[in-house]
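Supplementary Methods S3. Complex input for the heme C-bound model.
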Amino acid sequence: MQRKLIRIISLILMVVSFIAYIAKAPAFPIASENLLPWSTWFFIFALANIILWQSVVKLLSFSLMVIWFYAFAASVVPETSTATFDPNAIDRTPDTFIEIGEIIFNGKGKCNTCHTLDPSAPKSRCPDLTDIGTHAATRQPGMTAKEYLIESTYEPHKFLVPGYSNIMPPVWKPPISLSEIEIETVIAFLQSQGGEVDITEFEPPVDIGSAEAVVEELPPLLTGDVERGKKVFVEGAKCIACHAVAGVEQPTGQTLDEGVEVVAAPELTDIAGLNSLRYIEESVLLPNAQIVSGYGSVTVKTGGATIQGTLVTQDNEQITVRVKDAAGNEEERTILLSELDPEPIEELTDLTGKGYFWIQVTLADTGATISGDLVEEDDENITLQIGGEPQTISKSNVKVQATLIDFDENVIVGELIEETEDEVTLIVDGEEQIIDTFDIDEGPNYSRAFGKRLVVTSPMPNNFPLLLSVSDMSDLLAYLASLTGATDATAAEEAEATAE
Ligand code: HEC
Ligand code: HEC
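Predicted complex, serialized as structure tokens:
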């Protein structure tokens, strides 16, 4: 009787643990993957049933155990096969693509060192990719999700996610160097993040084979000495005062030379593992060319007050700036872009380069004042987004405003009609007014428009090319190129993995 009860309990437990295992229920008794996962419980009960029962149940337990064995083997195999993964031998099925794409995302592609897949992760230098499978279709008008993902991986510079800079290396180039099929699988994995997976083959926008040949023809950058370069990094240029590198001691309380403040800067332990040498070289020579998100300095005016700080995040509507108050305490302030004060613009040239994103002009032909977000600009025209509609305005059809102050401290603002050596003719409030240049204390200052802008600059000094000798610079670059994040242990692991 008692034996029968034990048999029945054992049968129930086996079925329950098998279902829990298949349904991927959290581990028991403690929710940790390593502590008795359901597969282990199932294994124990199945064994018990095989011993305790005769006949049908014995057979059932045995068959379940066989199923378990295959499932278990399949779950173990991909982990060990990451290193020996042969791109030519993969099935063109969505499941295989997603599975391999995920391995590459977290491994060879190094995507996970920059990107997160967790919306609650702290905002970092790169966009979070949660639900990118659906978001991808909304990034650029007329582009499908897949087209966007192809462009984002092959040619990431073509479209920059608002608020982020051009620091993502094209994934087919060194140091990431994914092959075409590997990129296809990563794209399938990204599509599987909230979107539809479509694995039909496509024509890559870049011919990797021939483009690589071009890269190889360039002269080698690295003729410097790594050890001497490290010395430049730590002592000569004091890069270490701002940048941490694992294993290199960071002097505390170090001050840089006059006028240069020690600021938070990206860790450089694996800079060469994530970026091309060209990018690294450019970062040192021209720090303002690409500014790592979250580290740029910004100065904006709003409500007449000037706010200066570190630009933490930015999107189409607002910015978050970290500022220090007089007592040295840091706080974050969110400012709507629409609330920035417009400034007069004298020359309507290179507006985007000067950081303008919103423009107001008065048209010469109709006298209408119009304003909107700046969409496009060339030598002759500017295009503004006005009430959801793009409108192109000729730069020659924009009124010039003059501002001047006379000796009675009157501020006179008007539309410029003519300026000669002796007098300035303006239309002020609809009336023509001629002002003698002898009566002008300040001005006239001309503006062709008003604009709101955001100018982000790098807090990193930009005079290293002048401070360092050519040989110091080449040693420094050689040292930076050696920072691939690979410690001796991981290097050995990788070597072993390739040997397998
Ligand atoms: C060095 C850091 C870095 C690495 C490594 C990197 N990315 Fe990026 N990625 C960025 C940054 C920064 C952006 C935003 C700027 C832009 O659009 O290029 C971005 C943008 C993207 C976008 C567009 C996101 C969006 O919201 O529209 C996709 C997709 C993407 N990356 C995929 C990848 C994949 C796949 C890999 C790995 C093969 C990868 N990235 C590796 C930095 C990185
Ligand atoms: C005053 C502090 C400061 C000093 C000194 C400094 N940097 Fe920087 N550096 C920064 C900041 C802040 C950034 C991020 C903003 C940007 O992209 O310019 C940065 C960015 C970089 C980057 C790009 C990092 C990335 O993750 O993409 C590299 C490479 C770099 N610095 C190298 C150097 C080297 C080499 C030196 C010494 C010759 C140096 N820096 C000195 C502050 C500093």
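The mean pLDDT is 84. The chain has five domains: 2-81, 122-217, 226-292+469-499, 297-340, 343-453.
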